[in-house]
Amino acid sequence: MCxxxxxxxxxEKWYLNPENYARRLYKVRKEGKESTGxxxxxxxxxxxxxxVAELVKARISGDLVWEEEIKxxxxxxxxxxxxxxxxxxxxxxxxxDIAYPLAKMTCGCRRVQRGMPDEENFTCxxxxxxxxxxxxxxxxxxxxxxxxxxxxxxxxxxxNHKEGRVQTVDVFGTPYIGGLCQCExxxxxxxxxxxxxxxxxxLKGHTVAKVDRExxxxxxxxxxxxxxxxxxxxxxxxxxxxxxxxxFGCGLCVTACPINAIELLDRESMPGLAENW
Amino acid sequence: xxxxxxxxxxxxxxxxxxxKCLSVCPSVVFVCGPTKVWKGRETDLSEYKIVGRYFxxxxxxxxxxxSCPTDAINLEFLLREQxxxxxxxERATQLRERNV
Amino acid sequence: xxxxxxVLQKVKGNPSAEVAPGRRLKVVxxxxxxxxxxxxxxxxxxxxxPLESLFNPDGETNEEYLANQGRxxxxxxxxxxxxxxxxxxTGEMIEHVAQQTGIRFPHVLxxxxxxxxxxxxxxxxxxxxxxxxxxxxxxxxxxxxxxVFADQGISDCQVFCRAxxxxxxxxxxxxxxxxxxKDASGSGLCEIAFRLQQGG
Lengths: 277, 100, 200
Description:
The structure holds three protein chains of three kinds. Chain A is of the alpha+beta class. Chain A is built from seven helices and twelve strands. In chain A, 26% of the residues lie in helices and 18% in strands. In chain A, helix 2 runs antiparallel to helix 3. The longest helix of chain A has 18 residues. Chain C is an alpha+beta fold. In chain C, a hairpin with a 3-residue loop joins strand 1 and strand 2. Chain C is globular and about 70 Å long.
């Protein structure tokens, strides 16, 4: 169990605890007018991107103390408010039974980083009671929303997984989970920042993939599935190689293997990886 | 060397619809984000702005410059050490101000 | 992983495509919706159903009386909450989504329960701890209504809430089983759980 489970899991994995998806629908209306608009920083667009500009500067300067300070302060804030974690497809399908309502929406990261039009990019999902008020934040839900049933959402999740996207849960006010993302490198800002700048806004999942070297035939079906730069072909032995230190446990390689030669293990069952979030 | 990505916003007016540089960049260097967020409506396309967010990843291939229909992008390259020096000074100023 | 290669081979479709025609909602430009509960609704409900009406002025406040008042209260609340004057955008969207998906539980019911709490005891602390398509749990802390009842020597305060909640469930079009648990140790915790009946 990760630190989030310890605080918000109620004895189980925190993202399988229904309490973290429930919220009141109503409060008493505040007097006075809401502001009509506000300035935004285009540089900060995308999930958890607020500190990228500073991080890039620190990286270039080579000042490690500076870089660590930026990350420490940003993460302290992020873990209280907005961060994400990788989950497996099995867990994701369980979540679709405890979170409601479920609304498909555009992936904001790929819109702002690749300019992808909504009709090719409806691969994100807003969940929970906050979605009934989606019109409050039109820019967040640019392109609209599409409310679907849990069964429709499960089929949709399988399509995303098949296409090769990583399932993640996203917190909006810890521990409330308000989003389910289908991420990929480098289009997903959270994945990009984790892989390229080691910014731990996105936590690794509770599982790790392991190749069974006896079974693997070197068919290469799994190559191209990893979004975390953790998988390649060991050419000299003709077997798939998973860098378990680098693995986020999403299971995309597992479901691509026609002979079940990659298994997902519980991270905590591996002493060498148990604290590697 | 490290790229300085200069964008002439008087020429680049509707980056999200155009999206040529976003689409062509082999290193996903650009981000096109809103400068305003409104209650009651989506951000107007004219309120979007392109920034070379991950300029440290720019290879200098120049595809963005070639593909830009309005010639709004200009790449300049500085020596890494020159830029590092500049950012270290920024950091020093930040620390000095903090200790005041 | 129970899901493997074989399962995925059978999966077809583009996740960005619309699940069904006409399902996708777009923002209506320059709208100015209101979402939360207006104070005026509280005033209106309390005017017609003042706290004193919990107690029988002409005799004993027995179970039957309390149940009747619970029903009266919830009918009044729903009439007002769904009226042209007070129906808010959250309520409209909840109903719209329920129409689109065919799923009314939990939120159509939850809305009535929440508005009931807010208009009867707007200063109380309470929260929703589970809201799935099968179970809804609402937890109250130191319910001020319970205190009013206790002051009048009525310990079985749940009669009122249960009768009100039954009306809410019926109006929401959801068949539910209800359980009430009040912590006897004096912590002030009271939890109401609604479970959707099979085929409800």
